[in-house]
Amino acid sequence: QVQLVESGGGLVQAGGSLRLSCAASGDTFSSAAMGWFRQAPGKERVFVAAISWSGGSTYYGDSVKGRFTISRDNAKNTLYLQMNSLKPEDTAVYYCAQKRNRAVRYTSPDYDYWGQGTQVTVSS
To answer: In the chain, which stretches have pLDDT less than 50?
Structure first.
């Protein structure tokens, strides 16, 4: 059974940085594509970033390109999201997600396992 636990969220001023982590249990992490999504109050969950099983390929939503960096450490079963130059519109609950296979996807229905989410609040 896969369990994902996010951490690292919090309150930060605009222009600041945060690093989210997602610790995964089980033995499938190193062979699975992973993603980050976010959901603001009253809005749908949207794609933020995704990474291939090896970490060799990364993909980003248009709103975070150039500011966020997704990475992974397969030896530690951990996924990361480095968020720089944060804006108030980045305020949301951030979720990490894992696929059952290596195929990278950009929509939430394509992911099989989800964490509980971590709140990120950016003040202006």
So the answer is: none
